[in-house]
Design goal:
The chain is 26% helix and 31% strand. The chain has 6 helices and 15 strands. The strands form 3 sheets. Strands 3-4-5-6-10-9-8-7 form an 8-stranded mixed sheet, with helices on both faces. It has a 5-stranded antiparallel sheet with strand order 14-13-12-11-15, with no helix packed on it. It has a two-stranded antiparallel sheet with strand order 1-2.
């Protein structure tokens, strides 16, 4: 089996190396790819081809990394955490949309603990530091009719040691990395192990009916609460309003100048310029 060069400045990423060599991260099956189009796409294909257990798919780089709304996720080799985790949530289908917020809390906690920086969450799926994106989440589901269950693939991208000059010019000033913010070189395996642990804890709360507890923590890290936002509604109409934060079901509430409260279900929400 090929051993990867997972050492930087004499420090080796032993957790990731062991997962690659053994094909497991703890008790969870682990699949490693040197390069792949999209870890989420691969995970969905595996589920459709008979995968039926919690599984982790990780890549050193992605050629077609995906974010929300069809956007791409810049995925240079050796510097980011590009991982998809297959989950089988024990919740009613109508609650699956809340998983992005559940994952947001888990990713936020993992980064806070390992990078010791205070990150915020921008609805519904971005982890930001001083308004700059450092991580993103893409949750996709697929029903497995033969088993009567629905699999959810949590795709998570974190800019760990990614050089800022690796990003396209149009993203300049809008993205950052853990290394750039904290000055700490964090091993991807360490962050992945913490992330999987945090997801497990938040999923236990979620499946146990305690989404309100998760939501309260999410709200404490809300990056846009009380700020003026702009987004396009389903008819492509530009709407401006002040963020009231998510409701009990995780749907963003925004109040426009007339006092009308809009419920934002999807779309790209950005801070509006006055």
């Amino acid at each position: 089996m090929r051993r990867w060069n997972l050492c930087v400045s004499g420090m080796c990423d032993t957790i990731l190396q062991q997962a690659i060599d053994s094909g497991r991260l703890g008790s969870i099956p682990f699949y490693w790819h040197e390069s792949i189009g999209s870890t989420n796409q691969k995970a969905l294909e595996m589920v459709r081809n008979g995968l039926f257990e919690q599984t982790i798919i990780m890549a050193d780089s992605q050629t077609s990394g995906r974010g929300r709304l069809g956007r791409s996720w810049v995925s240079p080799a050796g510097s980011g955490l590009y991982v998809s985790i297959v989950l089988w949530p024990q919740v009613a289908p109508e609650h699956l949309s809340k998983l992005t917020l559940v994952a947001g809390v888990a990713v936020n906690r993992a980064i806070n603990l390992e990078a010791t920086i205070a990150t915020m969450i921008k609805w519904p799926n971005d982890i930001v530091v001083d308004g700059k994106k450092v991580a993103g989440i893409l949750a996709e589901s697929t029903a497995v009719t033969s088993r009567g269950k629905t699999a959810v693939v949590l795709g998570i991208g974190v800019n760990v040691t990614t050089p800022l000059n690796a990003f396209p010019l149009e993203l300049s000033g809008r993205v950052t990395s853990l290394l750039a913010v904290s000055g700490k070189r964090i091993h991807r395996g360490v962050l992945l192990k913490r992330l999987v642990s945090e997801i497990a804890m938040q999923m236990e709360l979620f499946e146990g009916g305690s989404f309100s507890t998760i939501l309260e923590e999410w709200k404490r890290r809300d990056a846009t609460l009380g700020k003026r936002l702009h987004w396009l509604n389903s008819t492509k109409q530009a709407i401006y309003g002040v963020s009231l934060g998510p409701d009990k079901d995780g749907r963003l509430q925004v109040r426009d100048a007339s006092g009308k409260v809009h419920e934002v279900l999807s779309g790209d929400v950005t801070l509006a310029e006055y």
